[in-house]
Design brief:
Blueprint: E1 2-3, H1 6-26, E2 32-38, H2 42-58, E3 61-67, H3 73-85, E4 91-94, H4 104-110, H5 122-129, H6 138-149, E5 158-162, H7 169-178, E6 182-186, H8 193-197, E7 202-205, E8 223-226, E9 230-231, E10 237-238, H9 243-246, E11 252-253, H10 261-277
Helix pairs in contact: 1-10, 6-7, 6-10
Length: 278
């Protein structure tokens, strides 16, 4: 069994992006990422700070905007409009979830698809579903980079994606399908989850339920990618897979923390640098 080290790969990607930024600066280009935080969600604030630190490390200009909890949809759209037109900004990211009075779909669609480094704009989602080049959502994109780094080729594999969110599940299924896997997407309404996972060569789980995937659901030699991040009562961070049990059967498995998480930020920075180059 091999533990897939996302921290190590993300550091390699970040080093390579740092060199790219140095080269871009020689021709007068500094990539810029604008991050918008609305309200006072502590988890969101932590993520925004992590993104800011990562930008500094690579050499990307980071622009942070913080709107009050009671800001209006119009105020947010006006800010995005300004950033869409700002040549110093190559990527725009609105930290989700937004407070409940916002129309999130309208907000994401208002970001220029050319600056949509999260890969959530309907135009980029369309490109992804057609297998064409465009911004890919950072977490599934990071998973594909991990598989490649460990020479795990999904082509011809039976792959099971547990979760159907627009952020992870759906784009993950699409990327695996584009790479030649036979994909089953499972979710809370799936009736025979264990039956499906036992036939799967590759399982990607990302629903936010600790120990959802247990050893008796995994066949010997399967590849398990755990996208879940859950803080349990003891304060410990765990994924959606029961690591101790599942790791005894899997050929490859991602740990939590240190697996997919660090890759998400690395791919965000990668998308931003890509946007600057374009």
């Amino acid at each position: 069994m091999t533990i897939i080290d996302g921290k190590k790969l993300s550091n390699e990607i970040i080093d390579s992006l740092t060199n790219e930024c140095i080269e871009l600066k020689k021709i007068g280009i500094t990539p810029g990422l604008a991050v918008i935080l609305v309200g006072n969600n502590p988890a969101s604030a932590t993520y925004v700070n992590m993104k800011e630190k990562a930008c500094k490390r690579v050499g990307i200009n980071s622009f942070k905007y913080h709107l009050n909890e009671d800001s209006t949809q119009k105020e947010l759209l006006d800010l995005i409009d300004r950033l869409n037109k700002d040549d110093k900004v190559n990527g725009i990211l609105v930290q989700l979830p937004l407070p409940s009075h916002f129309n999130t779909d309208e907000v994401l669609e208002f970001i220029s698809y050319k600056k949509d480094v999260d890969g959530f704009h309907p135009y980029n989602v369309g490109l992804l579903s057609l297998g064409l080049e465009g911004f890919k959502p950072c977490t599934p994109y990071g998973v594909m980079k991990l598989l490649k780094a460990y020479e795990i080729n999904p082509e011809g594999m039976n792959a099971c994606v547990i979760g159907r969110s627009n952020i992870v599940g759906k784009p993950m299924s699409m990327l695996l399908l584009n790479s030649g896997a036979t994909v089953t997407t499972c979710h809370s309404k799936t009736k025979n989850l264990k039956e499906i996972t036992l036939q799967s060569d590759l399982i990607v789980v990302g629903v936010g339920k600790p120990n959802l995937l247990t050893a008796d659901m995994v066949k010997d030699g399967a590849v398990v990618i755990d996208v879940g991040i859950n803080r349990i009562e003891s304060g410990k961070l765990v994924g959606d897979a029961d690591f101790d049990g599942v790791s005894k059967k899997a050929s490859f498995i991602t740990p939590v923390p240190g697996g997919v998480g660090p890759m998400t930020i690395a791919m965000l920075l990668s998308n931003c640098v890509e946007g600057a180059k374009k």
